[in-house]
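Quick one, tokens below:
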């Protein structure tokens, strides 16, 4: 996600046959007997996709174009993941407060064009009235340190040293120690001070930016993002990012199970099928597919129900994550078009200590403001909203006659950035993680395997699909007709 910048059932025509040689094994891992499911409750596809966010939706659309049959299982009642859109009832204006922008890449334009959605170029930096205020005290904060253009030029030179970072975690061995430095040390080493303030505007949700490893910061603020920051990003002409996912949902139609979760899986390298048990609004469904795509963050708590082996569990168990929250609110007394960047008067580069509000952004509706918030530990919705409210009220000390925010929408995007230690990376963590692609007929396409950036994630998925998925001439015969 870029903060300034993821139940109709298919009815098989033929009765599914469950060979005796495979019944016992799925029964053991799924906790049910597959032979007890009738045709109406059994779904067969080439590919099962867990997660209907940016990654899962893109993979499903592209696989169908490759003549593969798919099924997307999504826990929410809509596709889109980190895309959050609220329609202001007083103006009818659609307001995005999750994902906002996309890099201007051919792939981005092709994807939106597929659905007939026109795009427009938008500038991000230097738009509107933006005040730098310490939201702990309400006191003004001075200009950012250093020369921004010189800092970004020096940062670009560093990015160009690692072209393989553009798609996935393709790291040389040994991994360059520069990439494993805390980003604050990397900044000092290469005199990037002038770039920090801009990087902080885009690298929201990453926890303590100066303590995060340089590898993750360079992945998150990539060359394409830098170019977009300076030259503009793309948005739908409607300025409604949910338009993309509404169109995708209509196209996928019976190839989605919404408001549904996976309760169990059975994956065996020696068997032709992956089996999954899904809980849907219309009851349990048994899914069998030739391949499985996991398009959700691979934290162990997210993967309950998957029959993980020791290799998978050992890798996924190393991930730590940050926490990121967005809200949309009326803020009485704050003039339309006014933005606030939270900065601190007593910290290095004026970066606010977490947990904290990152920014208060005006929206397309003059009545509403987006409030973006980050923390290094989990917080409840009440705690986040309480701290957001305190930050807004501190604006009174800056001479703004505001009242407490009146929240109309809220979203928790946690777990957000998934990271591992420098030592783990030195010892081949990402080499081993990449080796999971295809392991037990399973493929991983979430942001964790590339970056929290829709366009970059789609590029990564393209590479995985080209490498591991081929068109199936008899796909529809295998799964029946919808």
């Amino acid at each position: 996600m870029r903060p300034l910048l993821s139940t109709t059932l298919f009815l098989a025509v033929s009765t599914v046959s469950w060979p005796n040689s495979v019944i016992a094994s799925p029964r053991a891992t799924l906790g049910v007997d597959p032979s007890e499911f009738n045709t109406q409750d059994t779904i067969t596809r080439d590919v099962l996709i867990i997660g209907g966010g940016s990654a899962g939706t893109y993979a499903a659309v592209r696989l169908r174009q490759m003549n593969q049959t798919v099924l997307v299982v999504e826990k929410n009642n809509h596709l889109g993941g980190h895309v959050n859109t609220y329609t202001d009832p007083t103006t009818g204006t659609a307001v995005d407060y999750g994902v906002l922008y996309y890099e201007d890449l051919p792939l981005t334009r092709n994807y939106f064009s597929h659905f007939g959605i026109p795009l427009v170029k938008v500038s991000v930096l230097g738009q509107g009235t933006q005040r730098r205020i310490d939201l702990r005290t309400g006191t003004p904060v001075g200009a950012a340190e250093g020369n921004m253009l010189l800092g970004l030029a020096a940062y670009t030179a560093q990015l160009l040293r690692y072209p393989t970072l553009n798609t996935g975690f393709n790291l040389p061995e040994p991994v360059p120690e520069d990439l494993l430095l805390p980003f604050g040390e990397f900044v000092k080493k290469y005199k990037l001070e002038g770039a920090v303030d801009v990087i902080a505007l885009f690298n929201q949700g990453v926890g303590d930016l100066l303590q995060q490893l340089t590898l993750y910061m360079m992945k998150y603020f990539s060359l394409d993002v830098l170019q977009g920051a300076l030259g503009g990003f793309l948005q739908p002409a409607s300025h409604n990012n949910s338009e993309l996912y509404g169109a995708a949902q209509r196209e996928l139609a019976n190839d989605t199970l919404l408001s549904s979760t996976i309760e169990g899986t059975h994956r065996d390298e020696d068997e032709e099928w992956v089996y999954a048990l899904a809980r849907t609004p219309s009851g349990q469904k048994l899914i069998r597919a030739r391949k499985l795509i996991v398009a959700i963050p691979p934290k162990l708590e997210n993967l309950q129900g998957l029959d993980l082996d020791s290799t998978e569990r050992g890798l996924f168990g190393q991930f730590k994550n940050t926490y990121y929250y967005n809200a949309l609110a009326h803020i009485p007394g704050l003039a339309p078009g006014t933005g606030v960047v939270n900065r601190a008067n007593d910290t290095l580069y004026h970066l606010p200590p977490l947990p904290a509000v990152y920014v208060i952004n005006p929206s397309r509706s003059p009545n509403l403001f987006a409030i973006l918030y980050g923390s290094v530990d989990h917080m409840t919705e009440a705690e986040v909203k309480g701290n957001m409210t305190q930050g807004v009220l501190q604006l009174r000390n800056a001479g703004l006659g505001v009242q407490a925010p009146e929240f109309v929408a809220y979203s928790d995007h946690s777990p957000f950035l998934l990271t591992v230690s420098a030592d783990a990376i030195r010892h081949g963590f990402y080499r081993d993680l990449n080796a999971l692609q295809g392991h037990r007929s399973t493929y991983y396409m979430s942001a964790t395997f590339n970056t929290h950036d829709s366009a970059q994630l789609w590029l990564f998925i393209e590479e995985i699909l080209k490498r591991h998925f081929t068109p199936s001439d008899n796909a529809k015969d295998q799964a029946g007709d919808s």
